[in-house]
Amino acid sequence: MQKEVVNVGLVGLGTVGSGVVKVLKDFDGINIKRIAVKNINKKRNIDNFDTSVLTTDPFEVVNDKDIDIVVEVIGGIDPAYELLVTAVNNGKHIVTANKELLAKKGEPLFKLAKEKNVAILYEAAIAGGIPIIMPIKTTLAGNKINKIEAILNGTTNYILTKMEKDGVSYETVLKEAQELGYAETDPTGDVEGFDSAYKIATLATIALNRRVDINKIYREGITKISANDMKFAKELGYKIKLIALALLLDNDKVDVRVHPMLVPVRDCLASINGVTNSVVLEGFPVGRVMMAGPGAGEFPTASSVVGDILAIVRSLGSDKLLPMMECNHDITAEQLDIKDTVNKYYISITAVNTPGVIGSIGEICGRHSISLASVLQKGIDKENTAEIVIITEQSKESNINKAIEELKSNKSIVEINNLIRVME
């Protein structure tokens, strides 16, 4: 029998927490009983807000016997993990937007939740306002998903979009993004790919039905991408995006990684610009499905959090959780090392303008079983050097690395400017 009034407790009242409070006001039968904050006296941008529900002790929330659902929106591991363990042990259902916690501590947390027969829902932790977890567990449940290609970080997508559009440097756009509030003062979590790695770890675990180890995910950020890379990519028919990738291979291994990629302009992900996020799933029998929308922000993220709250509310009073609320991933994924992956590559080289230099580059690549798909040579500068850009055919990463080392030792090569993988 469903409860007449469901009590909710929040841990955190920042951007997302405030959005949750504002949205929940429109729903009868849901009462926000307690909210843990760092500073009770901070002015809140919430109309008619009852400050009597505030506390500075988050354990008051997770230990409150009357609270049915705990919503955690503070992020990080400490103290979030201890708080949620306490809440689960107290029989409370959990809604969280904490991608780092799920990636690093998801396995023991979900195991405990299963023992206690409580739900942990986390739609907001993957792609903000884009519904992706529940569709995978419900309408797409009859599919075997074998590929995920996703743009999961709005900050990096904004930076790369502006670099491409305005032809300016990474440093210039980062500064602008920080001034506009799209990038943090310390942007490391976004621009070095940590945020996307946390998200793809959980998304791949659900979609590929194997538990993915965050520590085995190859991660590379966007800090080495230059205005020249953007220009050359465009000439070759590509855009550069930070892609979170997960593949279920024929040998049952999984290939999960985050790094920049040259995306063909004809691909749907190439059209995802600004702070927008997108997830593309591929499998049988559905084929290829794309979802796109706001990946962060007060109301988009609150939309996913409140959706999870309502899903739990509807199940309260049942002896057993609905299957879509359970997390059953007993298989640990065997993850492929990046050196064993096979990709096409973009290689940007500064070389001395001497006869035969392109031929020598081709010979070096050939010695390492690398075929060239295209070669682009730009003008000669005052130092008698030229920019040479090559796109390879499918090659093994370990072979590419050997070729790069040999190229670096060649007297005609001034510098290897960048190496970026290319999406098919």
Write a concise synopsis of the structure shown:
By secondary structure, the chain is an alpha/beta fold. It has helices at 15-24, 58-62, 80-89, 99-116, 124-127, 133-137, 154-166, 170-180, 188-191, 194-208, 227-235, 298-315, 357-367, 397-409; strands at 6-11, 30-36, 54-55, 69-72, 93-96, 120-121, 144-151, 218-219, 238-248, 254-264, 276-284, 287-294, 342-352, 372-380, 385-392, 395-396, 413-422.
Keywords:
424 residues; elongated; 3 domains; 6-stranded parallel sheet; 11-stranded mixed sheet; 34% helix; Alpha-Beta Plaits; Rossmann fold
Secondary structure blueprint with pairings:
Blueprint: E1 6-11, H1 15-24, E2 30-36, E3 54-55, H2 58-62, E4 69-72, H3 80-89, E5 93-96, H4 99-116, E6 120-121, H5 124-127, H6 133-137, E7 144-151, H7 154-166, H8 170-180, H9 188-191, H10 194-208, E8 218-219, H11 227-235, E9 238-248, E10 254-264, E11 276-284, E12 287-294, H12 298-315, E13 342-352, H13 357-367, E14 372-380, E15 385-392, E16 395-396, H14 397-409, E17 413-422
Parallel strand pairs: 1-2, 1-4, 2-3, 4-5, 5-6, 8-10, 10-17
Antiparallel strand pairs: 7-9, 7-11, 9-10, 11-12, 13-15, 13-16, 13-17, 14-15
Helix pairs in contact: 1-12, 3-4, 4-10, 7-8, 13-14
